[in-house]
Each structure stands twice: as C-alpha cells, then as structure tokens.
Amino acid sequence: MPSSPCPENTAPWWTFGHVWLVIAGPACVIVASFATLWLALARPDPVVAEDYYRQGIEINKTLQATPKSLVPAIQGRNHALTPVPQPPQH
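== Nitrogen fixation protein FixH ==
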C-alpha cells in the first residue's frame, strides 16, 4: 500500500499558526482602509474660496510691502526651484 507524501493532519485549520499569519496581512489592510474611510468622512477638506485669485493678489501686495530685511528670504522662497544660469566654460 503506497503511503501519501503528506501525512494527514486531523487538527482543524485554525489551530495552525501559519494560517493566522497569512490571514493577518489582509485583515490589517481591511481595518486600515476602514479607519482611513472614517477619517476622510469625519474631516472633509475645506472648499477653496471662490475668490482665490483676488486673495492671492492681496497676499502679493502684502509681501511687496514687507521690510527690506525680509526681501532675500522672500526671493529665495519664490525662486527656490528657478535654475541658476551656469557661466560659459572655456
């Protein structure tokens, strides 16, 4: 009589630890998704103001009226991503 390559386990599936390890990953993702959904519904993002362009113009006017000591910081903030021209190399 040939023996089977895997011995039969008579214990129920929930008694094996590796089964719970496999189930734990997707279960954590489901719980996290419901927590994220709750956060999204409980704290909605504020609506952008209808006159956002006018408010931006007012902010720029306020920034232009700043003291001279803050001008380099403001220019650095406004041009942080502006590429610096490289001098020609000979």
